[in-house]
Amino acid sequence: MKFLRMRPGYGEQLIAEGDVTIPSEHEILVEEFRRQLDGGMWAAVPTTTHTGRREAQMVQTFDQIPQDSGRVIFFPRAAGGAR
Amino acid sequence: MTVALCATAIVVLALLWEVSMPWLDRKLDERRHRRERPDGTHGYDPGRERRAEQRARELLRSCVNDEEWGMYSDLGFLRVWGGRASGPEAGQDFGGAPYAYLIYPHKPIVAYLPQTRRLLNEYCVEFPDETRPYGSARLPDSDDVLAKWMALNADETRLISAANMHLPGRQVDPRQVTRDLWRLSQWERERLVREQRRAAAPGGPGGSVPAP
Question: Which of A75, B24, B87, B135 is the most buried (most CB within 10 A)?
Fold first, then answer.
C-alpha cells in the first residue's frame, strides 16, 4: 500500500509504502496515517465499483481503508474560500 | 570643437548613468532575492510548477474514468452529479430533478440543473497546505480538481458544508458557465457519435466481423 500526499509545487509525493500483512510495516503505515490526519490532512481512497465506475471514499481511521486498495491519497482539509 | 563634443559626451554619459542606476539597482536586488531568500523558501520556478502539474494530471487520470478524463483534458473542467435527494442545499426542492457540479481548478464549484441549465450556487472551497513547501499553499491545478472530485464523490455534504456558498456570478462569470455547459453538451454529442461509429465499424465492439 502506498501513501501519497498532494503538495504545492510538487504534485503527489510518496510519503510511505508498505505491506499491511507484515506487522512491522503495518505499524509504520498506521503511524504515518495518524500523523497525516493529525496534521490536518484528509485521506481518500480511489475505488472502482463492480460496474467499473470510478469513485472515492474518505477514510478517517486506518481500519476504514479497503483491504484491496493500493493507495491512499492525503490532501489538505477543505476550507471555505474567498468571502 | 573637439572639447565641446567631449564635454557633451560626458554630460550625456553622466545623465544616462543617473537614469539607469535605479534600474540596475532593482535588477541586482531581484537577482540577490532570487538567490537567497531570508525565510529559506524557494522562489517561483516555472519548471517546477510545470512538473508538479504534470504529476498532478497523471494522478487525476489514474483516479477518474475515461469520460471524465477526456472532459477535463478537452474542456478544462469536470462535471460531477449530485447525490442528495433535496439538491445541494437543505431546504431546496427541485422535484427530484438531477443536479450536478462543475469543478474548475482554483475556482468555486458551480451547482446547476442540467435539464434547464439553471445555475444554482457557487461553492467556494480551497485546500490550503499550510506547510507551504515552496512558499505557496496552493496545490497544482489538477490536484485541486482531484481533491474536489474525491471530496464531492465521497462526502458531498461535508464538502458543501465546508464551502462558502454564494449566488451564481460572485466569482465565476455566469456567461462563461453557460458557454461551458454548451461546450459540454457539444462534447458529449460528439463523443456519443464517435462511440456509435466505433461500435458500428467492422471488428468494433458492436460491429459485424467478416467471415473467415
Answer: A75
All three cell numbers of A67, joined, read 483491504
- Quote the ipTM score: 0.94
Query: Does the pLDDT of residue B30 top 80, yes or no?
Result: no
Nearest Cα neighbor of B151 from B132, B129, B120, B127 is B127
CB B195 within 8 A of CB B204: no
The proportion of chain B whose per-residue pLDDT surpasses 70, expressed as a percent, equals: 86
- Lowest mean per-residue pLDDT among A36-45, B6-15, B176-185, B192-201: B6-15
B contact residues 121-180, partner A, Cβ 8 Å cutoff:
124-134, 136-140, 143, 146-147, 149-151, 153-155, 158-159, 162-164, 171
For an interface test with A, give the residue of B60, B81, B122, B153 to mutate (most A CBs within 10 A). B153
Q: For residue A45, with 0-12 CB atoms within 10 Å meaning exposed, 13-18 middle and 19 or more buried, which class applies?
A: buried
Give the separation between CA A72 and CA A14, rounded to whole angstroms.
Answer: 10
φ and ψ of A3, to 5 deg:
-105, 120
Q: CB-based contact (8 Å) between B78 and chain A?
A: no
- pTM (2 decimals)? 0.80
* Side chain identity at residue B95, one-letter code: G
Contacts A80 to B, Cβ<8 Å: 124-126, 162-164
Residue pLDDT, tens place only, A15-31: 999 999 999 999 999 99
Among chain A residues, CA nearest to B106: A81
A interface with B, Cβ–Cβ < 8 A, is 4, 6-12, 39-40, 42, 44, 46, 52-58, 73, 75-83
Angle at Cα A42 formed by Cα A37 and Cα A48, nearest 5°?
125
